[in-house]
């Protein structure tokens, strides 16, 4: 294996400034630390599981990220920085990664070794674990991951080996430009084999759980609150300022906001729709909106079960043009979201979204063009187009669907609205039982391919749109010098064909107490580490 | 009486069994499953999950395994949505919470409701009556999902007297708002039922006789009127008690108590079959039990009733 990249070169390639930003909390000049270093973070629902390989929820990940540490971490801008891996090399063909681990300990004092990663990764793909995130190991393109998930090969054949205690070797099936970006995901975190084997399912309970993160679980009252306190065994404990992280469940956003205002909560990273403008006036230092890597769209069913009318690209274009995104973003959501004329979130790292002509037009021009396109396609007052929009139960989705119904009515399309509860909505999407459906995608990692992969033939692609050129561009991107160029070309095809009607790019409207520092607002994945935060004295 | 109780308990077993079978079938008829999610799972992973939780077996076999597990091991199965917890764990962590605030709210609702109703009936058509009726109508039209945020606003944000949510068995300040919010509308119903029933009893012959005999008014009310007037209240209270102690999704949501009311609704939405079944069985058992208690209380209060 040739050391093609040194770590520094690779870090540079990942757009990391030469002077690496804080790996730990670093108070600035003239900042005095507060006496109490605790963070009270709001969560909407109970944790489902704190087991890194079993969890499938974002909320859980926010806690797991404090309790465990993967090979890499993310900094405040979302760039990858060393975690347990101190340095790493990539082979010339891009298929073998070798990670050199730092000396670090589990919270019970045992050393963290390469074998802990091997155990965890095999556990994630092992059919017996039945992890809902087993697919993540396939996404990483680990050798044999798919075969193991299918039960065709043994978990021991996974492309990850411990060369020695401090060296981890990973083999991929094909070059994967985003591979390093998957390494901060909780599915890839190491877990303590001895503890899991001794305690079984109960190993995630406070007192039993052993982690390698900056914090250890102190208490967990399901659906009420969970507390993690500083882990003295953590390798960078010296630079960890925040002593305690408390996750407080409040199932209602409005009550959560009241409790924030009463001082019971320090950070709420979702606000009720429409509240941000007023809060920004009243609390200019606390009410903030930050981009968040998710996109909202209406997808069209282009499968055999879908309506014939939608198979005409002109119809899809007309429908996409007719949506007045400014009304949706400025009047309905009001949380700093951005109108979307494409699919990939605008703030995705290293990616410039394609400039679509129709994005520059005025809404009146778009509506005009939409009417023309519909007329060309043979629809008009005598032969109106009838469609149904399906959405899942939520006040916001309902408001948007009603708005879109009105926008489409203006170009002569009659829309019926169908509301289903979440599980049914998903089932119908997966079985292509819909015409037009509300959909949203959140990035799994901070790179454009996580969005584009959705529309690949054989991808999740519930509307079953296919395009050979698009597939080829995505396939080629794996080995491309600069994959982002190919991603953009692919997305241009996607939008020309209007496989979906993009609506908006997400933002997180949030309230943060002004004395909390180090919140990574520029990280669009919103991956935060309490170890990088601190409280200043007011 | 003893034979009657035994007979009722004997009937309870097939009733519960039917409840299990019907809920099980209904639940599986609902579209979607515990593992349907936005990003459809690869078929192999789904198959693995189904195999892990026994969902790949025919329905009758699943029901059989389920009932067998309960009867033989008192094991209500694993949760599909909380992979590191069993249904027993979830009920054991949530039920004591709802039982605590539910029972206290129940007692509070009865004490305040009955007093209001009695006062209103005794001083019928006076300002006291109007006040009591006014309070109970006010409480009735103020649903708990309106009440809860208002309470939090007043006691947490404005006066900073009470924590805005959460739960602790050691600190009663966490209990106050859930109790008030849960008890209010029940209190109003109890007050209305007590009032009308009391008015009816006060107008009846035996009260007139009692008064004619010169029995002091407080004894007439407490001994001769209140007891029979309680019959309709008690038949109302049986099911109410069960629904109060098995939690209210609104209370659990707004005060984040971690109770089983929210767990129940979540389990239905998440298709967490085993949790939903577990709580259904709990609620079913309690309902059967307290209906029996109500019937026994009936016989105790009204000597005319014999079983």
TrEMBL record, chain A:
Gene3D superfamilies according to UniProt: Dipeptide-binding Protein, Domain 1 (3.90.76.10), Dipeptide-binding Protein, Domain 3 (3.10.105.10), Periplasmic binding protein-like II (3.40.190.10)
Membrane-spanning intervals of the chain: none
One GO term describing the cellular component: outer membrane-bounded periplasmic space
Pfam families: SBP_bac_5
UniProt domain Solute-binding protein family: residue ranges: 80-460
Keyword Signal attributed: yes
Claim: Phosphoprotein is one of the keywords in the record: no
Signal peptide: 1-24
Protein localization: Periplasm
Key words, A-Z: Signal, Transport
GO BP: peptide transport
Gene Ontology MF annotations: peptide transmembrane transporter activity
UniProt cross-references to PANTHER family, sorted A to Z: PERIPLASMIC BINDING COMPONENT OF ABC TRANSPORTER, PERIPLASMIC OLIGOPEPTIDE-BINDING PROTEIN-RELATED
Family stated for the protein in its record: Belongs to the bacterial solute-binding protein 5 family.
Name recorded for this polypeptide: Peptide ABC transporter substrate-binding protein
The species this protein was found in: Paracoccus amoyensis
Automatic annotation (TrEMBL), chain B:
Domain of life: Bacteria
Protein's GO biological process: transmembrane transport
Membrane topology, record value: Multi-pass membrane protein
Entry's localization field: Cell membrane
Gene3D superfamilies: MetI-like
UniProtKB keywords: Cell membrane, Membrane, Transmembrane, Transmembrane helix, Transport
Family (UniProt): Belongs to the binding-protein-dependent transport system permease family.
PANTHER family registered for this protein in UniProt: DIPEPTIDE TRANSPORT SYSTEM PERMEASE PROTEIN DPPB-RELATED
Protein name per its UniProtKB record: Oligopeptide ABC transporter permease OppB
Organism field: Paracoccus amoyensis
Organism phylogeny: Bacteria, Pseudomonadati, Pseudomonadota, Alphaproteobacteria, Rhodobacterales
Gene from which this protein is expressed: oppB
């Amino acid at each position: 294996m040739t050391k093609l990249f040194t770590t520094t070169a690779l870090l540079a390639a990942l757009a990391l400034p030469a002077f690496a930003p804080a790996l730990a909390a670093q108070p600035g000049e003239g900042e005095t630390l507060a006496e109490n270093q605790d963070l009270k973070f709001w969560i909407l629902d109970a944790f489902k599981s704190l087991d890194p390989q079993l969890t499938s929820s974002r909320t859980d990940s926010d806690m797991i990220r404090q309790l465990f540490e993967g090979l890499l971490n993310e900094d405040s801008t979302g760039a990858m920085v060393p975690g347990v891996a101190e340095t790493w090399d990539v082979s010339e063909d891009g298929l073998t990664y070798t990670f050199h681990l730092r000396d670090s300990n589990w919270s019970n004092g045992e050393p963290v070794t390469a074998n802990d990663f091997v155990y965890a990764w095999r556990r994630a793909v092992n059919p017996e674990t039945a992890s809902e995130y087993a697919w993540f190991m396939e996404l990483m393109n680990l050798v044999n991951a798919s075969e193991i998930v299918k039960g065709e090969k043994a978990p021991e054949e996974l492309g990850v080996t411990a060369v020695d205690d401090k060296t981890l070797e990973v083999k991929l099936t094909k070059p994967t430009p985003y591979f390093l970006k998957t390494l901060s995901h909780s599915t890839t975190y190491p877990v303590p084999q001895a503890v899991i084997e001794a305690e079984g399912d109960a190993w995630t309970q406070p007192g039993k759980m052993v982690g390698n993160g900056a914090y250890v679980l102190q208490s967990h009252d399901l659906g009420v609150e969970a507390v993690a306190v500083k882990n003295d065994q953590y390798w960078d404990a010296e630079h960890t300022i925040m002593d305690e992280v408390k996750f407080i469940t409040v199932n209602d956003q409005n009550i959560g906001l009241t409790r924030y205002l009463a001082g019971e909560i320090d950070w709420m990273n979702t606000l009720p729709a429409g509240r941000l403008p007023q809060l920004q006036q009243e609390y200019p230092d606390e009410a903030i909106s930050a981009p968040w890597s998710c996109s909202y769209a209406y997808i069209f069913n282009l499968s055999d079960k879908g309506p014939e009318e939608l198979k005409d690209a002109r119809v899809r274009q007309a429908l996409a043009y007719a949506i007045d995104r400014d009304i949706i973003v400025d009047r309905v959501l009001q949380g700093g979201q951005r109108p979307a004329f494409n699919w990939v979130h605008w703030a995705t790292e290293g990616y410039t979204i394609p400039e679509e002509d129709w994005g520059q037009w005025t809404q009146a021009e778009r509506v005009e063009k939409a009417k023309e396109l519909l007329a060309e396609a043979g629809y008009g007052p005598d032969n109106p187009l009838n469609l149904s929009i399906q959405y899942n139960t939520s006040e916001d989705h309902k408001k948007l669907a009603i708005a879109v119904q009105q926008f489409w009515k203006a170009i002569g399309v009659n829309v019926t609205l169908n509301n289903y509860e979440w599980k049914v909505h998903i089932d119908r999407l997966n079985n292509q039982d819909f015409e037009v459906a509300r959909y949203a995608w959140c990035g799994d990692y901070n790179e454009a391919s996580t969005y584009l992969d959705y529309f690949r033939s054989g991808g999740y692609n519930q509307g079953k749109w296919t395009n050979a050129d698009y597939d080829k561009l995505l396939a080629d991107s794996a080995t491309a010098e600069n994959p982002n160029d190919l991603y953009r070309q692919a997305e241009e095809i996607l939008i020309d064909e209007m496989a979906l009607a993009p609506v908006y790019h997400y933002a997180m409207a949030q309230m943060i107490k002004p004395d909390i520092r180090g919140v990574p607002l520029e990280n669009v994945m919103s991956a935060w580490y309490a170890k990088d935060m601190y409280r200043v004295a007011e | 009486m003893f034979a009657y109780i035994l007979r009722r308990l004997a009937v309870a077993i097939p009733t519960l069994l039917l409840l299990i079978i019907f809920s099980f079938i209904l639940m599986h008829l609902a579209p979607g499953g515990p593992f349907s999610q936005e990003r459809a799972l690869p078929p192999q992973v789904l198959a693995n999950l189904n195999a892990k939780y026994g969902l790949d077996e025919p329905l009758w076999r699943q029901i059989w395994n389920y009932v067998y597990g309960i009867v033989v091991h008192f094991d209500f199965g694993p949760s599909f949505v909380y992979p590191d917890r069993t249904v027993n764990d979830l009920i054991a962590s949530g039920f004591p919470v709802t039982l605590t605030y539910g029972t206290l709210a129940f007692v509070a609702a009865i004490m305040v409701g009955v007093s209001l109703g009695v006062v209103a009936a005794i001083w019928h058509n006076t300002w006291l009556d109007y006040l009591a009726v006014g309070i109970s109508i006010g409480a009735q039209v103020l649903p708990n999902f309106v009440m809860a945020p208002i309470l939090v606003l007043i006691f947490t944000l404005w006066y900073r007297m009470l924590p805005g949510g959460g739960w602790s068995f050691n600190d009663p300040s966490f209990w106050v708002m859930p109790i008030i919010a849960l008890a209010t509308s029940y209190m109003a119903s109890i007050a209305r039922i007590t009032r009308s029933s009391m008015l009816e009893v006060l107008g009846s012959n035996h009260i007139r006789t009692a008064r004619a005999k010169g029995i002091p008014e407080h004894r007439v009310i407490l001994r001769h009127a209140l007891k029979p007037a309680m019959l309709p209240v008690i038949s109302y209270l049986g099911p109410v008690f069960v629904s109060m102690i098995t939690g209210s999704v609104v209370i659990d949501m707004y005060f984040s108590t971690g109770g089983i009311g929210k767990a129940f609704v979540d389990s239905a939405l998440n298709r967490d079959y085993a949790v939903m079944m577990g709580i259904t069985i709990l609620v079913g058992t309690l309902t059967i039990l307290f209906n029996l208690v109500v019937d026994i209380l009936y016989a105790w209060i009204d000597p005319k009733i014999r079983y």
